[in-house]
Write a structure and sequence with these properties.
GROEL, domain 1, seven-stranded mixed β-sheet, 3 domains
Length: 366
């Protein structure tokens, strides 16, 4: 008797429960609505969408992944459609709107098949078979592209950029192709490209036409002291992962000073410690210091007197890129810094980009 009882389900106030055909139709309806939201952005006559969020911020785009990311979608099926666009963007970088519209179209056809009493598992199996067949057709129609064919690569880049609100697609496509061909490694007839070897720095205020490909590393920092040179030729770069500052003690300490002489001796000792750090850098032959941590004002003064360019608080990712590009090694003890651990570059200089100063390390060793 107990086995035949219906299970009791408790739902929160205001909740609705749908089952069977009703749930299927609601899910398909939501998916089609999401697809229709981005459908009008597709193609050469596609229109941009203006999205205004709860804070009043405005986003204008015709990129499917961007639009769906900005739209507040609460329904699980709607979120799944948004994930389709994100996955497409992560894996391919283009075709996000096409993927969403295609998914919506497949679900629309599935609705017709469900009305004809075809079981969902049969529809899924059919779609999987169709997917394999579509891949076969795509491979048969595909043309092999040689990596040396820059004209075709440029056309592919321009096609991908079209509709991304980039009016300078021709100039940008040249930059993209040049950047990728430079970092490509060929091994056993296969081309391997690590996108992490291309760093993109964005600055608001300048036009897209001012974009350029830098043969080296760009750091979104400025030279720390006004008395330092703004340019260093034949740069010998010290990559430092320690603060050029007087370190505090690891445990709580109290220093009692009872006379002006003791105070002066204390300050002199701090100055001597900072001067020793700068001397270690100078003795190694470095004329550029890139520090991952802070640089004391007095240390900046000593470096400026020696004509050494210094940049501080550089991100670890930038330090790792500098190691690969310059051939240098990151040191944590200035006392052990040698010329063999220095990186090399033709020029290190500070340039103004869209009103902000940035440091360009160009003509790197590797």
């Amino acid at each position: 008797m107990a086995d035949s009882q219906q299970p009791v389900v408790f739902l929160p106030e205001g909740a609705k429960r749908t089952r069977g055909r009703d749930a299927q139709r609601i899910n398909i309806l939501i998916a089609k609505a999401v697809a229709n939201a981005v459908k009008s952005t597709l193609g050469p006559k596609g229109m941009d969408k203006m999205i205004v969020d709860d804070m009043g911020d405005v986003t204008i785009s015709n990129d499917g992944a961007t639009i769906l990311d900005e739209i507040s979608i609460e329904h699980p099926i709607g979120k799944m459609m948004s994930e389709v666009a994100k996955t497409q963007d992560n894996e391919v970088g283009d075709g996000t709107t096409t993927a969403v519209v295609l998914a919506g179209g497949l679900l629309k056809e599935a609705e017709t098949l469900l009305d004809n009493d075809i079981h969902p598992s049969v529809i899924v199996k059919g779609y999987r078979m169709a997917g394999k067949k579509a891949i076969e057709f795509a491979k048969g129609a595909a043309e092999e592209i040689k990596f040396s064919d820059k004209k075709t690569l440029k056309n592919i880049a321009m096609t991908s950029m079209t509709g991304k609100a980039a009016e300078s697609t021709e100039e940008l496509s040249d930059i993209v192709v040049d950047a990728l061909t430079q970092i490509a490694d060929e091994e056993n007839g296969k081309i391997d490209i690590d996108i992490d070897n291309v760093k993109v720095e964005k600055k608001q205020g300048a036009s897209l036409a001012e974009s350029e490909l830098v043969q080296g590393i760009v750091i979104d920092k400025e030279i720390v002291h006004g008395g330092m040179p703004r340019k260093a030729n034949n740069a010998k770069i010290a990559l430092v992962d320690t603060a050029l500052e007087v370190k505090s003690t690891e445990t709580d300490a109290k220093i009692e000073i009872t006379s002006p002489e003791q105070m002066q001796a204390f300050l002199d000792q701090e100055e001597a410690m900072l001067k020793k750090m700068v001397d270690s850098i100078k003795d190694s032959g470095a004329n550029v210091v890139i520090c991952q941590k802070g640089i004391d004002d007095l240390a900046q003064h000593f470096l400026a007197k020696e004509g050494i360019v210094a940049v501080r608080r550089v991100k670890k990712s930038d330090m790792d890129a500098l190691v690969r590009a310059t051939g240098g090694k990151v040191v944590t003890r200035l006392e052990s810094l040698t010329k063999e651990e220095l990186g090399n570059a033709k020029i290190v200089q500070e340039k103004k980009v869209a009103g902000d100063n940035m440091v360009f390390i160009e003509g790197c060793k590797l």
